[in-house]
């Protein structure tokens, strides 16, 4: 793995992206978004995650994160492992999921192709953390992260996307309480 894509200082703010294998559009039902936001809340409360900004799209998640005293690599590993299992279980049990067989087949095939997995693989292996060392970098990533749903045509204004921190940055109550980055 390249030195460029590792967490070296957990206290510094990092931009991280997670993507589903094959960029599968999984996050199309509220219940799937809630698995992710519940995991964020748990990691904030119990694992030392400081979440500065976030956005969940249909096939990927962007985060701006740091930690005072815990390993960001460990937090991300645990979050990906937990959300993978929980999302697979939710897909299997969701009575109205018309894509169930297709989704499970894709995640099973990805799991079989990767010796690090026992059965399914939902997330791509890499997080590609980028340390945000300047205010300019922070502003650029915040704008990029919050504008994702606008550029995708889902909403007209960033704060209208329920599954991001844009409401918090617009001075409104968002889904999660955050430590704002700026």
Note the main attributes of this structure:
182 residues, alpha+beta, sequence-specific DNA binding, transposase activity, Transposase_17_sf, Transposase_17
Describe this structure in words.
- This is Transposase.
- InterPro entries: RAYT_transposase, Transposase_17, Transposase_17_sf.
- By secondary structure, this protein is an alpha+beta fold.
- It has one domain: 2-Layer Sandwich (Alpha-Beta Plaits), CATH 3.30.70.1290.
- Helices cover 40% and strands 12% of the residues.
- The protein has a 4-stranded antiparallel β-sheet with strand order 2-3-1-4, sandwiched between helices.
- A hairpin with a 3-residue loop joins strand 2 and strand 3.
- The longest helix is centred in the middle third of the chain and has 22 residues, at 72-93.
- The chain is globular.
- It starts with 13 loop residues before the first strand and ends in a 13-residue tail after the last helix.
- The model has no long low-confidence stretch (mean pLDDT 92).
Short description:
The protein has helices spanning 30-46, 72-93, 100-112, 135-151, 166-169; strands at 14-19, 50-56, 60-66, 130-131. With 182 residues, it is an alpha+beta fold.
Protein topology:
Elements: E1 14-19, H1 30-46, E2 50-56, E3 60-66, H2 72-93, H3 100-112, E4 130-131, H4 135-151, H5 166-169
Antiparallel strand pairs: 1-3, 1-4, 2-3
Helix pairs in contact: 1-2
């Amino acid at each position: 793995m390249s030195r460029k894509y590792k967490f070296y200082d957990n206290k510094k703010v990092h931009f991280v992206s997670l993507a589903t294998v094959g960029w599968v559009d999984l996050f199309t039902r509220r219940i799937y978004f809630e698995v992710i936001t519940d995991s964020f809340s748990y990691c904030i409360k119990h694992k030392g995650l400081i979440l500065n900004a976030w956005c969940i799209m249909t096939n990927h998640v962007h985060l701006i994160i740091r930690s005072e005293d815990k390993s960001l690599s460990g937090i991300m590993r645990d979050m990906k492992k937990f959300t993978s299992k929980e999302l697979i279980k939710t897909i299997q049990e969701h009575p109205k999921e018309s894509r169930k067989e297709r989704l499970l087949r894709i995640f099973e095939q990805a799991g079989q192709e990767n010796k690090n997995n026992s059965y399914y693989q939902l997330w791509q292996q890499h997080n590609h953390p980028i340390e945000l060392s300047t205010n300019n970098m922070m502003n650029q990533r915040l704008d990029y992260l919050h504008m994702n749903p606008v550029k995708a045509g889902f909403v007209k204004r960033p704060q209208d996307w329920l599954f991001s921190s844009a409401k918090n940055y617009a001075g409104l109550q968002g889904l999660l309480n955050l430590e704002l980055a700026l």
